[in-house]
């Protein structure tokens, strides 16, 4: 077992390694190395970087195994580093850029202040996340790319592992641009879909659904899920929605869904369900980000979700692991 000092210093060193990855992602280093190795001077010119500074970052990246030396002063991309290319399936470039974005970086750096007060230092400085993104279009574009990339493995797991038999109409509550709904509808040609989100979001979803050839089977409806959701559907999907809200607001949303669904309907909550032990888990990392960026948002365990469902007159009936740390929690009316 590693010495405790080694574990702690490994975590401390992680910020330098992340900063190196962030530099690689921001400068597009992986894209420039996609066709083969380059000398540092040429790579710096292509990336718009200061060559001596870039050389020092590349040395750190080489120690991490994402690039390797090639010749006297050149570097090549490794298989591990290829996932930072912007043009490959499963790219994590947008994820790294989002975590290094100014507001997010500030939020994590000010986590001690958040823990002291119980209120997000990010919210105190910038306001609510979506207000912040609305006034920072560059950050919003990075965030959208991050959310799209993050949704891909979850959506693939959803369509492969969940049985949608009996679902004639699916409502994607707070479905964003519609990537998840489109993927589910493509996998189930007899299903109809409704994307429900705020007005300015629904406009973008209509365009995506039309571009996906789904305009005759799907519609985007604008509204506020704290007031109501579209009635009469067989299933309601809430993907990465409930974790944004404290228990009181989460129950309000779930109750509105419960009141709107068809008899025998179901609620499908796609979230990261925390384990009950102290084993490492992606959800524990995500929970600290939620703590830093939002007031009241949190990741929950299966038991905590079961309690929310119970308060909304629903019962947790199944939990399906989707991969990438996420789970699908299915609940039905009591």
From TrEMBL:
GO terms for molecular function: methyltransferase activity. CDD domains: AdoMet_MTases. It holds the Pfam family Dimerisation. Residues 12-84 form the O-methyltransferase dimerisation domain. Keywords: Methyltransferase, S-adenosyl-L-methionine, Transferase. InterPro entries: COMT-like, COMT_C, COMT_dimerisation. One of its GO terms (biological process) is methylation. Residues 111-312 form the O-methyltransferase C-terminal domain. It comes from the Bacteria. Transmembrane segments: none annotated. This is Methyltransferase. It comes from Nonomuraea guangzhouensis. The lineage of its organism: Bacteria, Bacillati, Actinomycetota, Actinomycetes, Streptosporangiales.
């Amino acid at each position: 077992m590693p010495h405790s000092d080694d574990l702690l210093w490994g975590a401390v060193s992680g910020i330098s390694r992340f900063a190196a990855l962030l530099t690689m992602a921001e400068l597009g280093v992986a894209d420039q190395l996609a066709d083969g190795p380059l000398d540092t001077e040429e790579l710096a010119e292509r990336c718009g970087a200061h060559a001596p500074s870039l050389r020092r970052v590349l040395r750190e990246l080489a120690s991490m195994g994402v690039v390797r030396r090639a010749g006297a002063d050149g570097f090549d991309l490794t298989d591990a580093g290829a996932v930072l290319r912007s043009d490959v399936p499963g790219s994590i470039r947008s994820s790294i850029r989002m975590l290094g974005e100014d507001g997010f970086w500030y939020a994590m750096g000010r986590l001690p202040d958040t823990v002291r007060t119980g209120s997000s230092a990010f919210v105190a400085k910038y306001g609510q996340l979506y207000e912040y993104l609305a006034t920072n279009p560059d950050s919003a574009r990075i965030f959208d790319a991050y959310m799209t990339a993050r949704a891909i493995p979850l959506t693939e797991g959803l369509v492969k592992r969940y049985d949608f038999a009996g679902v004639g109409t699916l409502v994607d509550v707070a479905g964003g641009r519609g990537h998840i709904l489109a993927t589910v509808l493509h996998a189930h040609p007899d299903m109809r879909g409704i994307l429900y989100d705020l007005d300015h979001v629904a406009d973008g979803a209509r365009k995506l659904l039309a571009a996906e050839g789904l305009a005759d089977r799907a519609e985007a409806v604008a509204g506020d899920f704290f007031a109501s959701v579209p009635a009469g559907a067989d299933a309601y999907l809430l993907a990465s929605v409930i974790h944004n809200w404290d228990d009181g607001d989460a129950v309000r949303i779930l109750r509105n869904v419960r009141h709107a669904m068809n008899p025998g309907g179901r609620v499908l909550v796609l979230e990261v369900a925390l384990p009950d032990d102290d084993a490492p888990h992606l959800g524990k990392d995500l929970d600290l980000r939620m703590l830093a960026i939002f007031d009241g948002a949190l990741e929950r365990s299966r038991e905590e979700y079961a309690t929310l469902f119970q308060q909304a007159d629903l019962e947790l009936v199944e939990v399906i692991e989707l991969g990438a740390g996420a789970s699908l929690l299915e609940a039905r009316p009591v």
